[in-house]
Amino acid sequence: MDITQLGDRILAGDRRALARAITLVESRRDDHRAQAASLLDHLAGAGRQALRIGLSGTPGVGKSTFIESFGMMLIGQGLRVAVLAVDPSSARSGGSILGDKTRMERLSRERAAFIRPSPSQSHLGGVARRTREAVSLCEAAGFDVVLIETVGVGQSETVVAELSDLFLLLLAPAGGDELQGVKRGIMEMADLILVNKADGELKSTATRTCADYAGALRLLRKRVQDPPGFPKALTVSAVEEAGLDAAWAEMRALSDWRRENGHWTANRAEQARYWFGQEVRHALLARLETPRARAEMDRLSTAAAQGQLTPASAAEQMLGFLNEE
Ligand SMILES: Nc1nc2c(ncn2[C@@H]2O[C@H](COP(=O)(O)OP(=O)(O)OP(=O)(O)O)[C@@H](O)[C@H]2O)c(=O)[nH]1
Ligand SMILES: [Mg+2]
Asked: Coiled coil located at which positions (predicted)?
């Protein structure tokens, strides 16, 4: 494969080249990893930046419906929109976002949209690292907005926040005064809380839920990356396409402010630092997974189990072995 040519086609906005490049970065073959690295180096020079928006919410809250409506609205404004997913369970399910293409039917037919399911790897860390590279590829291909969806079930929000310029939390209207068991840590990551399904019978409940969250957000510690009034809570209806323009206006106001005040650059720099650490850790652990290293691990752990070596000196021998490899 000619990497320079592939890179040039991506820079020209060729969607098939983009899809092919994402397949390349998702591959675990060593020669593919090397090609992916040189492709990403080649493209980094173009310096294109999209607005990266992370979106999380529990199953059924309306993420796919929201992305469809919101994405269509952005396209209507002349923007190009890419949709990626971080779903560590996709190894099992075959990729929820793919099945969701039916729910994103209009968007998936748009030439200005690009939808890609989560890479099928069983580890969240692996999925996230490859998604991060897919985001860079979409930026190089000239997309203005990259939406990164994740099912909010725990850790995946944290890694999606590390991929995003803005992080949105989608919530459903809830009766009663409980705050839907949203973990404090997740609330603290949100730049915007969107209470979806603010339509029909659910409308008044959604308004109340939104007010509850607005109150809860005001109690959180102030973050340096926020202008006054942020983070905010708003109601939307993905089905009725209501509140989407207001939500977009808030996203733009926030991202503009962050750009003007240095937080955008600082955030991306901090993220680069984070992903560098992740890559190093991953690469070190991968060195334990070669057949020879596994055999050596087995041999030394048996020696430790039988008391021939202390655990510490067995570990030292293992590190010596890795250094020689
Ligand atoms: N009334 C109403 N229903 C909605 C709205 N948005 C989504 N729904 C409905 O909620 C259900 C779930 O919507 P999805 O968009 O599939 O939700 P999701 O968050 O992507 O779900 P998972 O992919 O399973 O995590 C569907 O039946 C939607 O029609 C909305 O704004 N109003
Ligand atoms: Mg969905």
From this structure: none
